[in-house]
Amino acid sequence: MLRWLAGTPRSPGWPATLGPVRVKSGVVTLRPVRLRDGRDWSRLRIQNQNELMPWEPTAQGPWAARHHPSAWNQMYAILKSEAKLGAVLPFVIEVDGQYAGQLTIGNVQRGAVRSAWIGYWVDSTVTGGGVASAAVALGVDHAFGPVGLHRLEATVQPENLASRAVLAKVGFRQEGLLKRYMDVNSRWRDHLLVAFTVEELPGSAVEGLIRAGRAFAV
Ligand code: ACO
Residue 40, SS3? Predict the structure, then answer.
């Protein structure tokens, strides 16, 4: 250990378990990814291929092969080492204690920027019931609280109305349109850039959902 690093927390706010919050679909909590998530991750990613593929970065190889349980081991190792460095906070979204998706806070930048992006997906058997909104609100409160960030960003395709609704409910506002921003489903796709900073959040994002009657304290 380098002497100057001793006592310096490299990953404030990690590991953490967030919630619970009750929404229509059930009780939502966030917890760190685990090596033994491979089977659930693979099952849900394969079951949800049609819902996920239109919004996800293009990658090599067939979907089923890329989402075989064994593929999780390498992904988990990368997430774990990035999380240790404080660059990524990779959460599993649980609904009523069951693996139901993931939420990631990524590209965490410190120093004078103190910014990150947020991304997520939810199993279609529990969508439409407030799960993503609750998960994003929990992630936002954590990022602006214990993690110590000042700004959060998300990029979303204009056609992804459900995800835009989630981001708007939590308080993200539109900053611009990124032309041909990302290779998604084998084509360069425009993305909206949405963001907000801690000054724009009165109180907490979860409390905002509760005040709006969209979520309930447990
Ligand atoms: N048009 C307009 N609004 C819609 C539509 C639509 N076609 N479909 C859903 N909505 C609304 C819902 O009515 C709801 O709003 P409401 O609460 O005001 O009624 C909102 O979208 C969805 O809110 P939640 O229920 O909190 O979200 P859910 O748990 O259903 O998850 C999600 C939404 C994450 C987008 C899910 O559908 C999913 O995983 N999709 C595939 C992957 C994906 O798109 N991930 C996000 C990529 S962008 C990013 O990560 C920043």
Answer: helix
Six-digit token string for 1: 């250990």
The dihedral over CA atoms of 94, 165, 193, 47, expressed in degrees to the nearest 10, equals: 40
> Is 105 touching ligand 1 by the criterion CB < 6 Å?
no
How many angstroms separate the CA atoms of 83 and 15, rounded? Answer: 8
The response to whether residue 116 sits with its C-beta less than 6 Å from ligand 1 reads no
Residues 158 and 11: their CA atoms lie apart, in Å, by 33
pLDDT, one tens digit per residue, over 49-65 is: 999 999 999 999 999 99
At 199 the three-state DSSP class reads helix
- Which residue is closest in CA terms to ligand 1's atom 4? 162
102 Cα distance to chain centroid: 6
pTM over 0.85: yes
Rounded distance, CA 141 to CA 111, Å?
20
- The token pair at 19 is 């919630």
Per-residue pLDDT tens over the stretch 184-211: 999 999 999 999 999 999 899 999 999 9
